[in-house]
């Protein structure tokens, strides 16, 4: 809200140019874009009210999903660097062909980063599977690639209830415990953590991890005195298809 209330008038005008307003709202929209403080405060209060109704009730779960995805991205970088991370993001919608990253956009356009970098932004409310956002008039800011953090919408329905048949199919393929193990590795885990999450012995957890690794669904690497298990792009694709939820 502070950013909105302190945005330069030139930025507000640019933001409002591409929006279609109801004729009855045009005078108010014009006041906002011209920097009228009362109109801007009305907009801020409307956004707050919208947040209370549409975001706040779901934010706890949304935040959990964001943290889990950020952890997985960090582990992918540790495992295989930026190359593995970019190859794992939303394929086939996003394709990494070094040094070019191809992403959906309404028209064909080439964006040269020129040292600005690229911000990868997990989202929980976007209706698009992936989006590329950039401001051609602001060459100082890095573009953003938004990727979904959710496998299904944020609703009051439990994930297992939302797609129980898909979860059952994945469990039938891998077995219930091994399917749960695949889900746990999406966040990255040690053998000890895997055993605790599955409520099995360390030896059993190691055996499940070995089977998943031998079928290229996870990778295993040493981190100091521990062994880190991390899901592969193939394992993630299987997980998303099966819509498995945490046990």
UniProtKB/TrEMBL annotation:
Coiled-coil residue spans: none
Domain of life from the UniProt record: Bacteria
Signal peptide coordinates: none
Chain ranges passing through the membrane: none
PANTHER family registered for this protein in UniProt: ARSENICAL RESISTANCE OPERON REPRESSOR ARSR-RELATED (PTHR43132), HTH-TYPE TRANSCRIPTIONAL REGULATOR KMTR (PTHR43132:SF8)
Protein name according to UniProt: ArsR/SmtB family transcription factor
């Amino acid at each position: 809200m502070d950013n909105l209330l302190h945005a330069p008038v030139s930025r507000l005008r640019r933001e409002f140019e591409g929006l279609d307003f109801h004729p009855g709202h045009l005078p108010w929209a014009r006041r906002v874009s011209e920097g009228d403080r009362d109109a801007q405060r009305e907009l801020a209060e409307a956004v707050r009210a919208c947040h209370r109704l549409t975001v706040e009730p779901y934010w706890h779960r949304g935040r959990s999903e964001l943290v889990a995805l950020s952890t997985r991205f960090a582990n992918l970088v540790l495992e295989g660097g930026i190359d593995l991370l970019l190859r794992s993001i939303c394929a086939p919608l996003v394709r990494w062909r070094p040094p070019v990253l191809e992403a959906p956009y309404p028209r064909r356009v080439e964006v040269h980063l020129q040292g600005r970098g690229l911000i990868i932004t997990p989202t929980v409310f976007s209706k698009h599977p992936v989006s590329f956002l950039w401001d051609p008039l602001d060459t100082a800011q890095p573009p953003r690639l938004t990727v979904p953090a959710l496998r299904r919408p944020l609703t009051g329905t439990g994930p297992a209830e939302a797609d129980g048949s898909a979860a059952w199919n994945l469990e039938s393929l891998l077995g219930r415990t091994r399917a749960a193990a695949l889900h746990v590795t999406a966040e990255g885990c040690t053998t000890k953590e895997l055993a605790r999450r599955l409520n099995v012995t360390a030896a059993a957890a190691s055996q499940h991890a070995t089977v998943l690794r031998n079928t290229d669904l996870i990778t295993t690497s040493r981190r100091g005195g521990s062994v880190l298990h991390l899901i592969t792009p193939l394992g993630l694709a299987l997980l998303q298809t099966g819509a498995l939820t945490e046990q």
